[in-house]
C-alpha cells in the first residue's frame, strides 16, 4: 500500500460520516425543510449504535440501532416543525441541544469501554490491484455512503417521486393545490434524513473511533449542513465536497505528524475555518445560490382543508 | 385516521402569549416526573429536590444569581437578534472571546492596578464579544452567508483559541503545568454583592440593568420598532426606509457585546481566572432562555432564573439515579415544549375525525349534510 | 352497478347542494346550490371575497366542505383530494398558478398525471395537444423564465391532458391582454363544442356576457341570483354582484386644473435584474405633472414591481438625475429621502410589503411616516409617542371608513379591502405632492375600490401628481388622464385618454413592436 493510497483511505474514513449525514440532509432540504438538528441526531446515532453493538456483540445491529435512533429522533422534529409548524431553525437547534444532553445521559455508562468495530469488507483478489485497498477493502458504510449518493441522485432527478419531492421543496403551495400531500412527503424526507444522520453517528462510534466519547461529533453535523449548501443541493457535488473536507481534516492530522510547528489547536480549528471559507465562497455568488436553493426552504406550511 | 389540524387565529391570542411559557414549564416538569418514576425514584421527592430545595437556602439563592447572570445577559442580546431574524447561535463563542479580551488586561498588564481596571476589563470584554459577533454579521451583510453556520463554527474556533492561550502563552508558570491562567488580582475581580452570605457578584445586577435597557429600546423606541419590523418582514422594513444591513450589524454587535460582557463577568466574578472550560454551555442554554422568555428581555430575566435553577437542581440528580448530564436533556425538552406551546398563540388546534360514513352509504335526500369534523 | 337510477333524472353534470365552508367563525360559503349542465359555459360571478375561490377549491378537493353534498353525474361524491377530482373528470386552471418555477413545463405537467407516465411521453403529448388547440408551448422551458400568459397555457394544457368533462377556470383573464383573452375564449368555445362543460369564474361582467350561457351570482358566500347573462346588462349584473349601486368615479376634466411643472420625472432609467426571475428595466422615460393621473398598464411581470422599487427608492439609482421628485434630483436617495421630498408610495403587496402583518395598525402607520412626521410621532431619543400615532391611525380609519374588529388590531386581521383603504389613507393623510400606487384596488371589493379611485383622482385634482400602475384596464380608463404601457421592461409613450382605446393599449401590452412579433412567431413554429 502506497502513501497515496493510505492517505486516500484516511480521507475516505473522515469523509464518510460527513457524506452520510449530508446526503440525508440534502433530501430533507430538497423537500423544503431545514433541520438543523443533524448534530443531535448524529450523537444519538453514535451512542445508540455503540450501545447496541456492545450489547449484542454485532456491529451491524449497532448500525441498525444508529439508523433507528436517528429516525425516531427526527420524528420529534417532524411533529413540531411539520405538524405544529414551529419555527424550523429553533426546532432544529432544540433537537441538537436535546441530542447533546440525551446522548450524554445515555452514554454515561459507555465512557471508557472498548467498542465493537464494524470490520472492512474485502473483495479477495481485487485488493491487490493498484488502489485495491481503497476501492475494495473498506468498511461497509463507505460503500453504503456511495450507494446513497448515487441512489439519491437517481431518485431526485430520474424518478417521479423525486420530481414530486423537488416540487414540494420549491413551491409547497402549488404542490398542495395539485393534491400532493406536502406534510406526509416532508415527514418521509425528515425521517430519511434522520436515518442517514443516525448512521453517520454510528460510523463515528463503530468505525472511526470504536468508542463513545461525549460530544464526539465535534460539529460534524454542522459541517454536514454547510456541505449541503456548498454542494448547492446536488448529490454528486456533495460527494466531492465531503471528500474535500475529509482531506482538510486529515491534512490537519498529518501536519501534526510531520512535526509542523503550529499549535495543535490552530490545526484543529482548520475544518471550522474551512467551513466558513467555503460558505463565503458559495454565497458570494448570489445568483447561483438563488437558483439552486429550494424556494420553500425553512418556510412554515399549514395546509388549508 | 384522526389527525391534528391547525386553524389560524385572526389575532394572536393574548391568553396563550402569557400562558405558553408556564404551560411549557409545567409540561417539562411532568416529563421529568415521568422520567424519575421510570427510574424508580419517587417523582415528588425528586422534583422537590430539583426545583424547590435550591430556593430554600440563602447560599444556593446566591448560586442561582451566579448562574442566572450570564444566562440573562446573553439571552437579552439574543432576544434582539431573534426578533430581528438574525440567528446568532454563536453566543458561546462570543462569551469565550469576551472572557479572553477582558482578561487580557490583568494578564498582560499585571502592574496596572486601581479602580479603572475592572471597568476597562468589562469594556474590553464587551468589545471583544461584539467584534467576534461582527464576523458572521459582516459575512451575512456583505456576502449573504448563512449566519447560523458561521456563528456556530466560530464557537469551536474560540474554544480552541482559549485552550491554546491557557495551555500556552497565558499559562500560569506557578500552576505546575496545570492549564490555567494566573488568578486575577483583587482589583480585577468583580466583587460579590453580599460577601457575608454567598457568592453572587455584581454581574447579576449588570444583567438586570441590561434587560431593562434593552426592553425599553425594543418596546418604546424607533430603533426597537425597526428591529421588530425587519424581523417580521424584511420587505416591509425596506419599505419603511430601514437598512437591513445596518440592522444585521446592530443585532449582532449588541448581542455579541452582551455575551462578551457575560464572559468577562463570569471569569472575573465567578471563576477568578481563565481556564480551558469557562462555561457549562451558557451560550446555548441562553437560546432556550430567550425563547422561554418569549423574546422579551424582561421575560428573559424570569426565564434565566428558571434555567439557572435547572443547573443548580441538577446537582441533586445523582441521588435520584440520574447523572447531572440529564440537565441538558431537560433543557432541550423544555425548549421543545416552549416551541410547541407557542403554536397555540397563533393557531387553534383541532382534533379532526373523518366522517363516520362514506358517502355511498348516505342517502342524499335523507341526510344532505356531511359532517367532517368537530372543534 | 347502478343501484339508484333516480339520480340520472337530472341532466346536470355537476350538482352542488347546500355546500358550506366555515373558516373558524367565518362562513366563506353558505349553503350554496349550483348546477352545471353538460356542454355549457357556466359563469360563477362575484366580488372579491364572495366565496368563489373557496367554492371551487371544495369542488376540486383541496378544501373539505363543512356541510353539504356534491353530485357528479347524479351520484353523490366526496371529493377528498385533487387527484380524486381529476379521476372523476374535473380539471382546474388556477388563478394563482400552481406551477413550480424551478421545474420545466413538462415536469410541471407530469406532476398532475398518473405516476407511471414517463416524462418523455408527457412532453410529446403536451406538445401534440398544444398544437391541436393553438396554444404554443415549449415543454423543456423553465417555468420561471416564462411570461404569465405562457404559464397559463401550461395550466390549460395540463388540465386538458387528463380529458376532463368539466373544466374550472378561476379568473383566467386577469393576467392576459385583451387579445390573449380573445384567443382563450376561442379555445373555450371549442371545448364547449366538443361537449365539455366549463365553470368560468370571473368578476368581469363584459366577458361573462360575451362568453357564458348561464350565470350564478355569489355575494357574501351565498347564491343571490341565477340568470342568463346574455339577457342582462353590465349594470344589472353589477347590481346583483354588489347588492347596491356603485358610485362612479367623478373625474373633473383635466383642463379645469392648472397644469403645473412635472413633479415626478424619470429620465432614461435602466436597471439590471436583481434576481434570476426579475425583469430588466430599459430606458424608462416618464413625466407626471401636477394635477394629473397617469396610468401604467401592462400584464403582470413586465417590470412593474421593478419600476415601483426604482421610483420608491427601495432600489436606488446610480445617478441622482435619473429620478426627480418635485424638481429635486432624487435618484441617489433612499425611500425616506424621497418621502421627505413629498412623495408617497403604495406597493402592490399589502401584507409583507406595505404593512407588516403582525404589527398593530397604528404601528403600521409609523412604518411609512416615521421619517416625514418625526416631530409629530417621535420624542427625544427616538421614543415613539404612542398616543399621537394612535390618534392619527384613528383619524385615517374614520376618514377612509376602515372597518375593523378592534380599535387597534393587527394588520393581518383586516380584510384586504380595509387594509388597502388604510394603507392608501396613510399616504393621503400627508397630502403627498407625488403619489405612486401599484395595483390600488387588487382584491378589493367594489365599494372600497370606488372610494380609493375617487380619492386618487381628488388628490391629483388638488395639485399633486399621481402615478397608478395597474393590471385592471377598466380602472385605468376610468381614472387616468394619460395611459402608458409596460412591456418587457420598457414603458411606452403615454397616450392621452382621448386617444387611448382598449385595442391600442392591448396591443402595446402584448408587445406589439416588430421585433417581438418575429420572436413570437418563431416560438409558435
Protein architecture, described:
The complex is a heterotrimer of chains A (305), B (375) and C (525). Chain A contains 14 helices and two strands. With 305 residues, chain A is mainly α. Chain A has a two-stranded antiparallel sheet. With 375 residues, chain B is mainly α. Chain B contains 13 helices and two strands; from the N terminus they run βαααααααααααααβ. In chain B, strands 1-2 form a two-stranded antiparallel sheet. In chain B, helix 5 (117-143) runs antiparallel to helix 10. Chain B starts with a strand and ends in a 23-residue tail after the last strand. The model of chain B is unreliable at 355-375 (pLDDT under 50). Chain C has 525 residues and is α/β, with parallel strands linked by helices. Chain C contains 18 helices and 21 strands.
Total helix count of chain A? Answer: 14
- Mean pLDDT over the residues of chain B: 89
Q: Give the helix/strand class of chain A.
A: mainly alpha
Number of helical runs of chain B? Answer: 13
How many β-strand stretches of chain B?
A: 2
Please tell me how large the radius of gyration of chain A is: 19 Å
Biggest protein-protein contact in the assembly: A-B, 47 and 49 residues
Q: Which class do the helix and strand fractions of chain B yield?
A: mainly alpha
**General form of chain B:** globular
Q: What form of chain A results from the Cα inertia axes?
A: globular
Helical amount among residues of chain B, as a percent range? 55-70%
- Terminal Cα span of chain A: 63 Å
Quick structural overview:
Chain B is mainly α.
Draw up the topology in text.
The complex is a heterotrimer of chains A (305), B (375) and C (525).
Chain A lengths: L2 H28 L7 H19 L2 H25 L4 H20 L13 E2 L9 H5 E2 L1 H19 L1 H11 L1 H6 L4 H27 L11 H11 L4 H23 L6 H5 L1 H15 L1 H7 L13
Chain B lengths: L2 E6 L5 H25 L4 H10 L5 H26 L7 H18 L8 H27 L3 H21 L35 H18 L1 H11 L1 H6 L4 H28 L10 H11 L4 H18 L11 H21 E6 L23
Helix pairs in contact in B: 1-2, 1-13, 2-12, 3-7, 3-8, 3-10, 3-11, 3-12, 4-5, 4-6, 4-10, 4-11, 5-6, 5-10, 7-8, 7-12, 11-12, 11-13, 12-13
Chain C lengths: L11 E12 L2 E12 L3 E6 L5 H8 L7 E6 L2 E3 L4 H7 L1 E4 L11 H6 L8 H14 L15 H13 L5 E5 L7 H16 L3 E6 L2 H7 L2 E6 L2 E6 L6 H9 L19 E10 L9 E9 L3 E5 L6 H9 L10 E3 L2 E2 L5 H6 L2 E4 L14 H9 L4 H4 L8 H15 L15 H13 L5 E5 L7 H16 L3 E5 L3 H7 L2 E6 L2 E2 L3 E2 L5 H8 L4 H11 L1
Parallel strand pairs in C: 3-8, 3-9, 6-7, 7-8, 13-18, 13-19, 16-17, 17-18
Antiparallel strand pairs in C: 1-2, 1-4, 4-5, 9-10, 11-12, 11-14, 14-15, 19-20, 19-21
Amino acid at each position: 500500500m502506497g502513501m497515496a493510497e493510505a492517505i486516500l483511505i484516511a480521507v475516505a474514513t473522515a469523509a464518510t460520516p460527513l457524506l452520510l449525514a449530508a446526503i440525508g440532509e440534502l433530501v430533507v432540504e430538497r423537500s423544503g425543510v431545514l433541520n438543523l438538528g443533524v448534530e443531535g441526531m448524529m450523537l444519538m446515532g453514535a451512542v445508540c449504535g455503540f450501545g447496541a453493538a456492545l450489547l449484542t456483540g454485532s456491529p451491524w445491529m449497532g448500525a441498525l440501532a444508529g439508523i433507528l435512533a436517528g429516525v425516531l429522533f427526527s420524528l420529534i422534529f417532524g411533529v413540531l416543525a411539520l405538524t405544529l409548524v414551529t419555527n424550523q431553525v429553533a426546532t432544529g437547534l432544540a433537537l441538537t441541544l436535546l441530542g447533546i444532553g440525551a446522548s450524554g445521559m445515555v452514554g454515561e455508562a459507555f465512557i471508557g469501554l472498548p467498542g465493537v468495530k464494524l470490520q472492512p469488507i474485502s473483495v479477495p483478489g481485487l485488493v491487490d490491484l493498484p488502489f485495491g485497498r481503497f476501492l475494495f477493502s473498506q468498511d461497509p458504510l463507505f460503500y453504503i455512503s456511495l450507494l446513497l449518493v448515487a441512489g439519491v441522485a437517481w431518485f431526485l432527478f430520474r424518478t417521479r417521486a423525486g420530481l414530486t419531492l423537488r416540487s414540494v421543496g420549491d413551491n409547497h403551495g402549488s404542490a398542495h393545490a395539485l393534491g400532493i400531500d406536502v406534510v406526509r412527503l416532508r415527514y418521509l424526507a425528515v425521517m430519511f434524513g434522520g436515518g442517514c444522520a443516525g448512521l453517520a453517528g454510528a460510523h463515528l462510534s463503530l468505525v472511526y473511533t470504536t468508542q463513545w466519547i461525549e460530544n464526539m461529533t465535534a460539529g460534524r453535523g454542522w459541517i454536514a449542513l454547510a456541505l449541503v449548501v456548498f454542494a448547492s443541493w446536488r448529490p454528486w457535488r456533495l460527494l466531492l465536497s465531503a471528500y474535500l473536507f475529509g482531506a482538510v481534516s486529515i491534512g490537519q492530522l498529518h501536519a501534526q505528524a510531520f512535526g509542523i510547528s503550529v499549535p495543535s489547536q490552530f490545526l484543529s480549528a482548520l475544518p471550522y475555518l474551512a467551513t466558513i471559507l467555503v460558505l463565503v465562497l458559495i454565497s458570494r455568488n448570489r445568483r447561483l445560490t438563488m437558483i439552486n436553493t429550494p424556494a420553500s426552504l425553512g418556510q412554515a406550511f399549514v395546509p388549508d382543508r | 385516521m384522526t389527525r391534528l389540524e391547525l386553524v389560524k387565529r385572526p389575532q394572536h391570542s393574548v391568553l396563550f402569549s402569557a400562558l405558553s411559557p408556564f404551560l411549557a414549564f409545567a409540561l417539562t416538569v411532568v416529563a421529568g416526573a415521568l422520567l424519575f418514576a421510570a427510574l424508580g425514584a419517587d417523582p415528588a421527592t425528586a422534583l422537590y429536590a430539583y426545583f424547590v430545595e435550591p430556593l430554600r437556602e440563602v447560599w444556593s439563592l446566591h448560586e442561582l444569581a451566579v448562574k442566572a447572570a450570564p444566562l440573562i445577559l446573553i439571552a437579552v442580546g439574543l432576544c434582539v437578534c431573534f426578533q430581528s431574524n438574525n440567528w446568532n447561535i454563536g453566543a458561546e463563542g462570543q462569551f469565550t472571546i469576551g472572557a479572553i479580551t477582558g482578561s487580557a488586561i490583568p494578564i498582560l498588564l499585571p502592574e496596572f492596578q486601581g479602580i479603572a481596571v475592572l471597568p476597562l476589563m468589562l469594556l474590553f470584554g464587551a468589545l471583544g464579544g461584539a467584534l467576534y459577533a461582527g464576523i458572521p454579521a459582516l459575512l451575512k451583510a456583505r456576502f449573504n452567508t448563512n449566519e447560523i453556520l458561521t456563528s456556530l463554527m466560530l464557537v469551536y474556533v474560540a474554544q480552541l483559541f482559549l485552550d491554546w492561550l491557557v495551555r500556552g502563552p497565558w499559562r500560569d508558570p506557578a500552576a505546575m503545568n496545570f492549564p490555567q491562567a494566573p488568578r486575577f488580582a483583587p482589583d480585577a475581580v468583580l466583587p460579590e454583592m453580599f460577601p457575608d452570605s454567598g457568592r453572587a457578584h455584581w454581574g447579576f445586577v449588570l444583567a438586570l440593568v441590561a434587560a431593562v435597557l434593552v426592553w425599553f429600546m425594543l418596546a418604546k423606541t424607533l430603533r426597537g420598532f425597526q428591529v421588530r419590523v425587519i424581523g417580521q418582514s424584511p420587505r416591509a422594513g425596506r419599505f419603511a426606509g430601514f437598512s437591513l444591513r445596518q440592522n444585521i450589524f446592530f443585532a449582532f454587535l449588541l448581542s455579541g457585546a452582551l455575551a462578551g460582557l457575560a464572559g468577562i463577568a463570569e471569569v472575573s466574578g465567578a471563576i477568578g481566572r481563565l481556564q480551558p472550560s469557562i462555561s457549562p454551555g451558557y451560550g446555548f442554554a441562553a437560546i432556550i432562555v430567550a425563547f422561554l422568555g418569549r423574546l422579551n428581555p424582561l421575560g428573559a430575566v424570569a426565564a434565566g432564573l428558571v434555567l439557572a435553577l435547572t443547573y443548580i437542581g441538577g446537582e441533586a440528580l445523582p441521588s435520584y439515579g440520574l447523572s447531572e448530564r440529564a440537565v441538558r436533556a431537560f433543557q432541550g425538552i423544555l425548549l421543545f415544549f416552549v416551541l410547541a406551546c407557542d403554536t397555540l398563540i397563533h393557531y387553534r388546534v383541532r382534533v379532526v375525525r373523518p366522517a363516520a360514513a362514506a358517502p355511498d352509504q348516505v342517502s342524499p335526500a335523507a341526510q344532505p349534510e356531511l359532517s367532517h369534523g368537530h372543534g | 352497478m347502478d343501484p339508484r337510477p333516480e339520480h340520472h333524472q337530472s341532466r346536470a353534470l355537476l350538482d352542488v347542494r347546500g355546500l358550506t365552508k366555515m373558516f373558524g367563525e367565518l362562513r366563506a360559503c353558505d349553503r350554496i346550490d349550483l348546477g352545471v349542465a353538460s356542454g355549457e359555459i357556466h359563469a360563477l360571478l362575484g366580488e372579491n371575497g364572495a366565496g368563489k375561490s373557496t367554492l371551487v377549491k371544495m369542488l376540486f378537493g383541496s378544501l373539505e366542505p363543512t356541510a353539504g353534498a356534491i353530485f357528479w353525474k347524479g351520484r353523490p361524491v366526496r371529493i377528498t383530494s385533487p387527484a380524486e377530482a381529476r379521476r372523476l373528470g374535473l380539471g382546474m386552471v388556477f388563478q394563482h398558478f400552481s406551477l413550480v418555477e424551478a421545474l420545466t413545463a413538462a415536469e410541471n405537467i407530469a406532476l398532475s398525471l398518473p405516476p407511471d407516465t414517463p416524462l418523455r411521453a408527457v412532453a410529446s403529448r403536451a406538445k401534440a395537444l398544444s398544437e391541436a388547440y393553438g396554444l404554443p408551448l415549449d415543454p423543456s422551458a423553465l417555468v420561471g423564465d416564462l411570461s404569465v400568459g405562457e404559464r397559463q397555457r401550461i395550466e390549460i394544457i395540463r388540465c386538458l391532458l387528463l380529458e376532463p368533462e368539466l373544466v374550472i377556470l378561476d379568473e383566467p383573464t386577469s393576467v392576459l391582454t385583451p387579445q390573449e383573452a380573445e384567443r382563450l375564449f376561442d379555445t373555450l368555445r371549442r371545448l364547449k363544442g366538443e361537449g365539455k362543460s366549463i365553470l368560468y369564474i370571473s368578476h368581469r361582467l363584459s366577458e361573462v356576457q360575451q362568453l357564458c350561457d348561464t350565470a350564478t351570482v355569489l355575494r357574501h358566500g351565498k347564491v343571490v341570483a341565477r340568470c342568463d347573462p346574455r339577457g342582462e346588462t353590465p349594470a344589472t349584473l353589477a347590481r346583483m354582484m354588489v347588492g347596491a349601486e356603485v358610485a362612479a368615479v367623478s373625474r373633473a376634466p383635466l383642463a379645469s386644473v392648472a397644469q403645473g411643472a412635472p413633479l415626478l420625472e424619470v429620465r432614461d432609467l435602466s436597471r439590471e435584474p436583481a434576481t434570476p426571475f426579475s425583469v430588466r428595466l430599459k430606458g424608462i422615460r416618464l413625466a407626471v405633472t401636477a394635477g394629473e393621473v397617469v396610468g401604467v398598464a401592462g400584464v403582470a411581470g413586465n417590470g412593474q414591481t421593478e419600476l415601483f422599487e426604482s421610483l420608491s427608492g427601495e432600489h436606488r439609482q446610480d445617478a441622482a438625475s435619473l429620478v426627480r421628485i418635485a424638481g429635486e434630483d432624487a435618484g441617489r436617495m433612499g425611500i425616506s429621502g424621497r418621502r421627505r421630498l413629498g412623495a408617497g408610495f403604495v406597493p402592490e403587496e399589502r401584507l409583507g410589503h406595505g404593512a407588516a402583518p403582525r404589527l398593530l395598525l397604528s404601528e403600521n402607520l409609523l412604518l411609512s411616516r416615521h421619517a416625514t412626521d418625526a416631530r409629530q410621532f417621535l420624542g427625544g431619543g427616538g421614543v415613539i409617542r404612542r398616543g399621537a400615532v394612535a390618534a392619527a391611525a384613528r383619524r385615517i380609519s374614520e376618514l377612509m371608513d376602515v372597518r375593523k374588529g378592534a380599535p387597534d388590531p393587527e394588520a393581518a386581521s383586516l380584510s384586504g379591502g380595509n387594509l388597502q383603504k388604510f394603507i392608501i389613507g396613510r399616504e393621503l393623510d400627508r397630502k403627498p405632492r407625488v403619489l405612486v400606487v401599484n395595483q390600488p384596488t387588487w382584491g378589493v371589493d367594489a365599494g372600497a375600490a370606488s372610494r380609493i379611485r375617487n380619492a386618487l383622482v381628488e388628490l391629483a385634482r388638488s395639485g399633486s401628481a399621481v402615478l397608478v400602475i395597474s393590471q385592471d384596464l377598466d380602472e385605468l380608463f376610468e381614472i387616468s388622464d394619460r395611459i402608458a404601457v409596460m412591456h418587457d421592461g420598457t414603458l411606452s409613450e403615454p397616450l392621452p385618454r382621448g386617444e387611448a382605446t382598449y385595442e391600442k393599449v392591448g396591443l402595446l401590452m402584448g408587445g406589439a413592436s416588430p421585433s417581438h412579433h418575429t420572436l413570437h412567431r418563431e416560438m409558435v413554429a
